[in-house]
Amino acid sequence: MTLSRRYPATCHRPLARVPALAVAGLLFMAATARAQPTFAPSEPANQPMGAAFGVKPGRVAWAFDPAATTWNGTTNAPGWWDDSNTHPDAVANMLSATLRAVGDAADDHDAWRKIFVDFNQRKGKGSVGYQRGEKIAIKLNLNQVHDHGNGANASYIAPQLVEALLRQLVQKAGVAPVDITFYDAIRGVPATIFDRCTKAFPGVHFADSTGTDGRERAVADRTKPLTLTQGGVTLYFPTCVTQAEYLINVAGLKGHTLAGMTVCAKNHLGSLFTADGAPGARDMHESIAVRGRGRGPATPVQGMGVYNGLVELNGHEQTGGKTILYLVDALYAARHNEYRLDSSCRWESAPFNKRWTSSLFASQDGVAIDSVALDFLRSEPTLATIVTGAVDNYLHEMALANQPPSKTVYDPEKDGKPLKSLGVHEHWNNDAEKKYSRNLGTGAGIELVSLQPSSS
Question: Residue 231: its pLDDT value, please?
Fold first, then answer.
């Protein structure tokens, strides 16, 4: 059965009344309703593929607390990102609960220790934890942030979550602020994140596309390239990633106008540069497109069993090869990558029931966490025309990277060492029970741990 745990939560406030759908949401849904294939898994439920790993192999922790998010969905001053609308104590409790579940530990300190030791053992470093002076890079999805303001109603990683993660790393994992860099190489770090974190922990680094206002500029390291097997394009990662010993991937939960959905795997499109230092995300688009744009130049739509650049992007030694933890910020899930937050982003499906998604997901397995995210996204009626096409092709290819359905030899470093399985993929039994093979005791796939506040 699905493992359910409870944890203390604070800052409980009544939910605001749900207003009518925004005009922009209706227009987008109408525009995308035409000629889009609905998503349906190509394999039966609870048929895991790939190799699970982690302290508890295949475990994905899901914290849900409606009290964390009480924004009314319309007011810009203060916005959703203000502490009066997104409550720091509740968010910090959610993060703590997911970390303890992922690390299978009774406290946060031990959870981090076990996560680091498990990672280092898999990397052949022995039974060692984090060592003072080792650098950690954290990729934030800031795709809708184009300056250093507050972003208005742009959808980006919640400032409360960023500060809570920073506080965890410093106070529980023992990492000095000066050894931590949060970044999005092709976007801006908003003041809502930068100001509170640098005030609380002076010395912490933030890198973005500008390098102004106290941020550092993300620059390409040309010594550790990513060369895509299909197309032969060579791309580069920022130095804050290549100089780090560890990486944490913090993604948002939303659909995508090209790829069907965007969570952890696609988050690293914000980690890429071309040879001339320009953003490299567009060079990935052709191999990840599973649905038509409905506007602009057409991009070929991919099906199942074909090459997908996300496999090499996330299998590279500088990305997945360094990632100790994957987080999905689902406090306010947006409809898609270009959609600004408003009241229409509340979800109809259970247990959300026309409220904000108010959730946080965590895992050591990047394939497992994206698989769970897809099951949540595909089960939400308001996203039926967005999460369409062969959305999980990349998950099949990643899980079976050693023998992928496409027959591609995935070798992102071009060193003659093809990728092995990058994690485990499966779909749950149904959207009411949300059970995976480890929950059911029928297989060695995903385990979804459900965490709820004690008073919900």
Answer: 85
- Which parts of the chain sit beneath pLDDT 70? 1-37, 293-299, 454-456
For 3-111, list the strands marked E by DSSP.
Answer: 3-7, 49-50, 59-64
Predicted pLDDT of residue 77:
77
User: Cα dihedral sign for 339, 265, 136, 8?
Assistant: positive
Q: Beta strands 59-64 and 359-363: pairing type?
A: antiparallel
pLDDT at 291: 84
Other beta carbons within 10 angstroms of residue 15's beta carbon come to 16
Residues 454/6, Cβ–Cβ less than 8 Å: yes
Alpha helices (H) in 273-345, listed in sequence order: 285-288, 309-315
381 Cβ contact partners less than 8 Å away, ≥ 6 residues apart: 348, 349
Provide the whole-model pTM: 0.92
Record the tokens describing residue 196, joined without a space: 């509170």
> Could you state, in order of their start, the residue ranges of all structural domains in the chain?
3-8+31-453
> Which secondary-structure segment (H or E) carries 371?
helix 366-378
Q: Give the Cα separation of 283 and 298 in Å (integer).
A: 15
CB atoms within 10 A of CB 65: 26
pLDDT at 5: 59
Distance CA 332, CA 343 (A): 10
- CA max distance for the chain: 58
